Amino acid sequence: MSVSRDLAGVLDRIALSSTQQQVLRAGVLVGTLLLLGLVPVGEGTFHPVLSMGVLVIAVLVAALPESHVGVALLLALAGLWVVAGPDRLDGRLLVAAALLGAIHLCATLAAVGPSGHTLGRELLRLWGRRAALCLAATVAVWLAARAVSLLDLPASGTAVGAALVLLLAWVTFLTVRFARPGR
Fold first, then answer.
1. What angle do CA 77, 80, 82 make, to 5 degrees?
2. Is the dihedral of CA 39, 44, 46, 49 positive or negative?
3. Which of 6, 39, 128, 171 has CB atoms 3.0–4.6 Å from 44's, for a disulfide?
4. Per-residue model confidence as pLDDT tens digits over 91-143
5. Rounded Cα–Cα distance for residues 58 and 50 (Å)
6. For the chain, domain boundaries
């Protein structure tokens, strides 16, 4: 089935969407606005052109959650934080990571099913557990980074390379474990 991308079709799908989907689409916009507001609050640099571009992408995600624009939104927000965000490992970084997770969750759930579809409780519980686990892992990594930053170690390309190899091994393990056929 092909999804209409013309303006009338998009507006029809928004008008026919369930209240739950409208809340999820609004969650994408609100999360994006909060993250954009967190950049200057966190003593980062406000980039009006980049911020407007990110906001346009967020509106596209809210209008077309089933498209691949959500990936562009997450990459744009993460890139904006890297370019304009503060250079410290304070609580604002943790809030930014939680907001990125919330935006991802809202965009993913808004993309499930046709416009009038309402998601079941079991699916929402499953995604809630996944989000909680991701947030717990994020907090653990943030705490570990804070602990390592207190050691005031010199920069090391070897340590970064070893960490990336370890991360690649972990992602490979998870991919093999969870991407089995028939699962």
1. 110
2. negative
3. 39
4. 888 999 999 999 999 999 998 877 778 889 999 999 999 999 989 988 998 88
5. 12
6. 7-152
Q: How far apart are CA 39 and CA 4, in angstroms?
A: 35
Closest CA to 25 of 64, 55, 56: 64
Label each residue of 114-136 as H, E or C: CCCCCCCHHHHHHHHHHHHHHHH
> Identity (one letter) of the amino acid at 170?
W
Residue 93 burial (C-beta neighbours within 10 Å; 0-12, 13-18, 19+): buried
- For 175-182, what is the mean pLDDT? 72
CA distance 52 to 16: 28
Q: CA geometry: angle at 65 spanning 167 and 32, to 5°?
A: 70
